[in-house]
Task: inverse folding
């Protein structure tokens, strides 16, 4: 992985609060959203808070720095579940704390079940029992209850019901010894609150969004909702792209009898798909000449994934996007999870890039294995070995020619 440049004045913040066992020893830490050194959360959007917390904990500060060999409890919203934010975290060190705002819908339950099948322990946050939550309870290993919110009777009834179902109970907002002793007598295993410790703010240098302009342009280039006119306008307004597009279209490689003198005409002749790929290359190349080898690798990967997608009768454009965007963290200098969440990608494409899921995930794995020379992992169902080799050779030839045309 190529380490991005860090700016010391850019900081990442998270809160960390210990969760103790009955012997008052630290069992885990809850990782809390913070956006400054002020020790409280200003949450406007649950998904944004989940994403920022995961990015900060996993990539900026570092999970090992935050929790050592203990577990991290991290909140996850419904949108965060759907976007697969959890998969940026190592399952063996993380408990996914499902927010109380996550409805027990069939879609959410399926997503939680999927996360559990990947080895993630599930906790339910601010839990209060009702019959519609039975399936949620089945999927959870831990249940957290707010002792300040629940009456003594509700706390006793909820804890008894959940203990019968074999759940480990976590009491949160413990503020005095009497509350701790009561919850311990009710069968709670773990305890959290100001009585033991207030959240601690942890900061680290943040990977700065220095490439946001390039990322915004990439997002527009790959927006499936963009019309031909909008795409034409986008290229026209970028002086460098429009100049190089016209030079590329009029180059000797096309041997056109008449000169192409407008972006609109170039788009008609080349097609939106080809121009999108070509423009993406130029945008990535703007990141810096020192990364030209990375750009070439990304384009080879993209083209090879495109060819293999076509062979499998899948959308070739999606294959190209998966291949190219799988290297955005190295090219843009920002965490992949953070970058992908800002792009208008389908769930299928995002899942392939972030978690290597689905057909496109299989294609990406095969392409990356070929890059690494790991021949035993190159196999792709429905594609003979010689076709993979041919796809690679064709991708290299295409990418090198395109890079050459884009220089200058």
Result:
């Amino acid at each position: 992985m190529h380490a991005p440049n860090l700016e010391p004045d850019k900081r990442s913040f998270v809160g960390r609060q210990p969760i103790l066992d009955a012997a008052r020893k630290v069992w885990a830490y809850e990782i809390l959203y913070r956006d400054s050194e002020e020790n409280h959360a200003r949450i406007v959007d649950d998904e944004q808070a989940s994403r920022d917390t995961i990015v900060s904990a996993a990539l900026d500060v570092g999970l090992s720095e935050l929790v050592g060999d203990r577990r991290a409890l991290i909140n996850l919203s419904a949108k965060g579940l759907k976007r697969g934010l959890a998969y940026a975290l190592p399952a063996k060190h993380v408990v996914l704390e499902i927010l109380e705002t996550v409805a027990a819908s069939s879609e959410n339950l399926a997503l939680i079940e999927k996360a559990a099948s990947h080895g993630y322990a599930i906790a339910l946050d601010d839990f209060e029992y009702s019959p519609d939550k039975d399936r949620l309870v089945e999927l959870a290993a831990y249940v957290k209850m707010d002792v300040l919110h629940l009456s003594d009777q509700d706390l006793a009834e909820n804890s008894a019901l959940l203990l019968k179902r074999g759940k480990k109970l976590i009491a949160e907002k413990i503020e005095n010894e009497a509350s701790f002793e009561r919850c311990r007598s009710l069968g709670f295993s773990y305890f959290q609150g100001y009585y033991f410790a207030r959240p601690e703010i942890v900061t680290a240098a943040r990977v700065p969004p220095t490439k946001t302009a390039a990322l915004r342009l990439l997002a527009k280039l790959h927006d499936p909702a963009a019309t031909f006119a909008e795409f034409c306008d986008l290229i026209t307004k970028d002086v460098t792209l429009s100049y190089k597009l016209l030079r590329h279209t009029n180059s000797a490689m096309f041997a056109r009898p008449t000169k192409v003198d407008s972006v609109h005409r170039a788009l008609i002749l080349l097609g939106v798909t080809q121009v999108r790929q070509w423009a993406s290359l130029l945008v990535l190349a703007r990141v810096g000449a020192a990364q030209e080898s990375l750009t070439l690798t990304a384009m080879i990967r993209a083209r090879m994934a495109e060819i293999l997608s076509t062979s499998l009768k899948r959308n070739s454009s999606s294959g190209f996007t998966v291949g190219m965007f799988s290297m955005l963290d190295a090219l843009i200098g920002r965490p992949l999870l953070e970058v992908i969440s800002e792009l208008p990608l389908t769930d299928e494409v995002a899942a392939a890039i972030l978690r290597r899921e689905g057909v496109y995930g299989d294609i990406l794995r095969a392409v990356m294995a070929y890059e690494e020379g790991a021949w035993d992992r190159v196999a792709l169902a429905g594609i003979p070995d010689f076709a993979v080799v041919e796809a690679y050779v064709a991708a290299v030839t295409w990418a090198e020619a395109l890079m050459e045309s884009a220089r200058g």
Remarks:
- Residues 300 and 395 are 5 Å apart (CA to CA).
- The chain has a mean pLDDT of 80.
